[in-house]
Amino acid sequence: MLCDNIVMKYLAIDLGDVRTGIAISESGIIATGMETYKRVGMQKDLQYIADIANRYNVDVVVFGLPLNMDGTEGARAALEEWTDAGMDEYG
What digits encode the pLDDT tens for the residues 69-83? Predict the structure, then answer.
């Protein structure tokens, strides 16, 4: 049985080539921007995101999925899926 008063924290990631947007939400509906992180390399980037998730006791990390105007997955979508899978390594 689900309890209505359970609050989950979400960390939202908008992964870019040079910078990554990081936001947090306690409702899962509205996120508040935390920072724009300058990327340095995939492994260090993922570790940085994992550190933030741990520091703020985040329950779920959500990566944005880039879609084309017609709703199909964009070229970056494969990278997002790979990154999402890579987060499992960090905890």
Answer: 888 877 666 565 555
Backbone angles phi, psi at 19, to 5 degrees: -130, 155
Say what the pTM is.
Answer: 0.73
- Cα three-residue angle 14-62-52, rounded to 5 degrees: 80
Q: What is the mean pLDDT of the chain?
A: 82
Per-residue tokens: 26: 């306690």
Q: How many CB atoms lie within 10 A of CB 78?
A: 11
Write the burial class of residue 9 (CB in 10 Å: 0-12 exposed, 13-18 middle, 19+ buried): middle
Among 85, 30, 37, 35, smallest CA distance to 61 is for 85
User: DSSP strand E in 1-91: where?
Assistant: 10-15, 19-25, 32-38, 60-63
